[in-house]
C-alpha cells in the first residue's frame, strides 16, 4: 500500500482525512489534485481527489477550512456529496469555530464507524492557516484558521486515541515554502503539527 503526499493549491484545507476502501488492496495515488481540466490538463496537480473518488479508491473525505472554491470545485462537491464532508471557512465566521468543527467531525466519524471504515490518511496543508500564523506558503489567502483552531481540530478528530493509534496509515504536512517564511514561523508550526501527529500514533505496535 503506497502512501501519497497530497497537497492543495488554490484551496486551503487543513485536514483531509482520506478513508481507504476496505475492499481494495492498494491505495491509488494520482499526481494531481482536485478537479479535472485545470490549465486544460485533466491530470494536473489540481485534481487528485477527483480521480481518487472517480476510481472509487476511497470511501470518504472530510475537508476542514476550505475557502474560495471555484465553480468547478463546487460542481464536484455536489457530484460526490455522499462521500464528501466539507467545512468551509464562512461556516466558522461569527460562530464558535471549534463547536462547528466538533459537530461536523463527530458526524463524519460516526458515518465511518457505521460503514466499518478502519483506515485513515491525514494530510494537512499549512496554508489553511491565516497568513498571520503561516506566512511561509506559496499561495497566501487571508481568512484562514488560527493555529489554536488547527491543533484543536486535530484533538477533536482523534479524541478517540484507539482510532489514531490503530487506524492512521499515513500522514503528511504540505505547502510549506521556506522562501516566503518570516522568522521561521511557518517552519515551527509545521514541525509542531508533525510532532502532534506523531504523538497520536506513537504507541502503535
UniProtKB/TrEMBL annotation:
Membrane spanning stretches: 6-23
SUPFAM superfamilies assigned to the protein according to its UniProt record, in alphabetical order: Arginase/deacetylase
InterPro entries assigned to the protein according to its UniProt record, in alphabetical order: Ureohydrolase, Ureohydrolase_dom_sf, Ureohydrolase_Mn_BS
Classification via Gene3D superfamilies: Ureohydrolase domain
Coiled-coil regions listed in the entry: none
Biological process annotations from GO: putrescine biosynthetic process from arginine, via agmatine
GO MF assignments: agmatinase activity; metal ion binding
Keywords from the named record: Hydrolase, Membrane, Metal-binding, Transmembrane, Transmembrane helix
Entry-linked Pfam families: Arginase (PF00491)
Family indicated by similarity: Belongs to the arginase family. Agmatinase subfamily.
Protein name, per record: Agmatinase
Taxonomic source organism: Reticulomyxa filosa
Species lineage: Eukaryota, Sar, Rhizaria, Retaria, Foraminifera
Amino acid at each position: 500500500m503506497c502512501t501519497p503526499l497530497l497537497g492543495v493549491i488554490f484551496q486551503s484545507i487543513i485536514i483531509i482525512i482520506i478513508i481507504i476502501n476496505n475492499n481494495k488492496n492498494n491505495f491509488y495515488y494520482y499526481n494531481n489534485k482536485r478537479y479535472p481540466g485545470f490549465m486544460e490538463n485533466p491530470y494536473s496537480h489540481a485534481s487528485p481527489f477527483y480521480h481518487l473518488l472517480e476510481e472509487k479508491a476511497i470511501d470518504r473525505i472530510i475537508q476542514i477550512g476550505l475557502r474560495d472554491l471555484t465553480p468547478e470545485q463546487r460542481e464536484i462537491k455536489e457530484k460526490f456529496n455522499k462521500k464528501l464532508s466539507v467545512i468551509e471557512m464562512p461556516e466558522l465566521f461569527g460562530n464558535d469555530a471549534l463547536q462547528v468543527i466538533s459537530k461536523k467531525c463527530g458526524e463524519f466519524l460516526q458515518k465511518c464507524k457505521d460503514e466499518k471504515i478502519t483506515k485513515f490518511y491525514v494530510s494537512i496543508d499549512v496554508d489553511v492557516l491565516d497568513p498571520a500564523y503561516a506566512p511561509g506558503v506559496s499561495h497566501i489567502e487571508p481568512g484562514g484558521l488560527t493555529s489554536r483552531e488547527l491543533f484543536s481540530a486535530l484533538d477533536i478528530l482523534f479524541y478517540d486515541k484507539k482510532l489514531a493509534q490503530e487506524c492512521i496509515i499515513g500522514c503528511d504536512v504540505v505547502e510549506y515554502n521556506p522562501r516566503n517564511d518570516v522568522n521561521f514561523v511557518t517552519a515551527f508550526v509545521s514541525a509542531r503539527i508533525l510532532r502532534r501527529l506523531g504523538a497520536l500514533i506513537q504507541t502503535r505496535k
